[in-house]
Write a structure and sequence with these properties.
Strand content: 5-15%
Radius of gyration: 21 Å
Structural class: mainly alpha
Number of strands: 5
Bound molecules: adenosine monophosphate, tryptophan
Helix content: 40-55%
Low-confidence stretches: none
Length: about 325
Amino acid sequence: MRIFSGIQPTGSKHLGNYIGAIRQYVEGQDDGDPAIYCIVDLHAITVPWDPAELRSNVHDTTALLLAAGLAPERCLLFRQSDVREHSELTWLLAALTAWGDLNRMHQFKEKSGKQRELVSAGLFFYPVLQAADVLAYRADTVPVGEDQRQHIELMREIARRFNERFGETLVEPEHRIPEIGARIMDLQEPANKMSTTGGTEQGTVLVLDEPEVVTKKIKSAVTDSGSELRRGPDKQGITNLIDVMAVARGVTQEQVESEFDGSGYGDFKGAVAEAVVEFLAPVRQRYQEIRPDEQALEDALGAGAEKARAIAAETLVEVRAAMGIGSAA
Ligand code: AMP
Ligand code: TRP
């Protein structure tokens, strides 16, 4: 099984990213043949960015993934822009992508609504680049959080259309969305997903937050006026904390409910804070050791890119030939 996933380079990955995605990357690295993880700097330029900051954010995210447990000898970790095949395949796949489908993408609607100056064509094209990321490697499985479901559906559609028109060349990938924690909610506004761009600062726990900050954020999480410790549609705040607790402790949601049956919300929040601090502490510590050595980070990314390029280049040869692009071999 070939695994592929991408993650945006930012200096501030949050608990939702960690639980929804990064945890799955680490778990998948030995099942992948290979497992391929890409830091998507080309996606990052679909909204305003600062060039120097972007480079530094790639290093931040690389260090975080290594600190979380990705091992360059067990998976393939690279920077998207180092493998130019992604850009070329984006254009080729654009010829098979329906404008109407792109126009229906929730993430585009949400992000374009927030732009003050420019809604770039790049933002509209974002899902085509994402399709190219995955299809270039003929990946079978794409570990992501719930918010990426529609993007994966679109890449399946593009692969299907390609294969129908030009013969079996690309693989229709399946998403892998975790059973618990596919959508971690903002602690202050539990109707919205946790997010560094759209959420509240106090309701967003960063993987690298200091333990006291994590504790404060979780203890001040918004709950409901009841007192029962159970999941339910009318109890979004508590449901979210139960999910977080289950993942941090590696148990089921039912186990959390029965263990804390009868406890007050205050005590429960204290216990969740403790569990999350313990869950994130080793990552934060390793990050501090790894992040300063930028040459080592570049070396790891460079080695990953070389292996990635070899796979993507092969796909591109077949795609170009099938589409009638370039001279006949
Ligand atoms: P991004 O930082 O936008 O590149 O997202 C990286 C990964 O984190 C993607 O697979 C997302 O689906 C996942 N993700 C983002 N926000 C959340 C959240 N609140 N809960 C669970 N997963 C999330
Ligand atoms: N769009 C994804 C996100 O915001 C990141 C991403 C880019 C990705 N390319 C990908 C995810 C390919 C999975 C596969 O989280």
